[in-house]
Write a structure and sequence with these properties.
Elements lengths: L1 H77 L3 H26 L6
Length: 113
């Protein structure tokens, strides 16, 4: 009879360990879902709060590019051989214009008017 009780106790311990392991797995899965949700919400809130700042910085960048372009055109009109200066400025501004377009696409911030 002592062997039967011992077998029952061993079975009870195995069942409890199995239940503990299943509960641990469920807790981890639940925790993963919660952290995924929280991190997704945090990303959305950070993006929403940063968007106006990014939009302002991009608008300032566009304004600087436009001002440099205007200065180069003024030099073209006022200085003999200024057309070359304007072409060099246009070439130099290619990366700036490209960056602004790329940043607008990446952030989905519409251009200023």
């Amino acid at each position: 009879m002592g062997g039967v009780l011992r077998a029952d106790q061993d079975e009870l311990v195995r069942n409890r360990e199995l239940a503990r392991d299943e509960a641990t797995q469920k807790l981890r899965a639940s925790f993963d879902r919660v952290t995924d949700t929280v991190s997704g919400q945090a990303r959305a809130r950070v993006a929403a709060s940063v968007r106006p700042i990014v939009g302002g910085a991009l608008s300032a960048g566009e304004a600087i590019v436009e001002q440099i372009d205007g200065i180069a055109k003024g030099i073209e009109e006022a200085v003999p051989g200024g057309g070359l200066t304007n072409r060099v400025a246009d070439l130099a501004l290619i990366l700036g214009r490209y960056f602004v377009k790329l940043a607008r696409m990446a952030t989905r911030v519409p251009p200023h008017d």
